[in-house]
Amino acid sequence: MRKVRYAVAKMEELTPDRGRIFSLGPDGGECALFLHGDCVYAVGSLCPHQNAPLEGALVRDDQIVCRRHGFCYDLKTGDCTTLGGYGLPVFEVQIEGDTIFVHVWEDV
What share of the chain is helix, strand, coil (3-state, %, to 5)? Predict the structure, then answer.
């Protein structure tokens, strides 16, 4: 496995506390970015409950709230706080200037 860094978005493309889905390179992977306070968080793009896209999902009380059924996920850990057994992958984020980079582990 190797760690790959993707430039996925510009800061001005994000709306505070509202999810936006971006591509992770040419292989079709995606992530959802959330601007909360002064931090940007990157998680998997789909709610694992029923694979609902997290586009437009809101952050409330430091939790991502899925728009389909209201399942909640901790913004920092991806853990589901609604029901055990679910969770979102969480990715490392780096910001350089106004560019947001997401780091992903990939098979070689």
Answer: 5, 55, 40
Distance of CA 14 to the CA centre of its chain: 12
Secondary element (H or E) of residue 63 = strand 63-65
Q: What is the pLDDT along the chain (108 residues), one digit of tens a residue?
A: 999 999 999 999 999 999 999 999 888 799 999 999 999 999 999 999 889 999 999 999 999 999 999 999 999 999 999 988 899 999 999 999 999 999 998 887
**What are the structure tokens assigned to 30, written together?**
């995606």
Which domains are assigned to the chain? Answer: 2-106 (2.102.10.10)
- As a whole number of Å, the end-to-end CA separation of the chain is 5
pTM (2 decimals)?
0.95
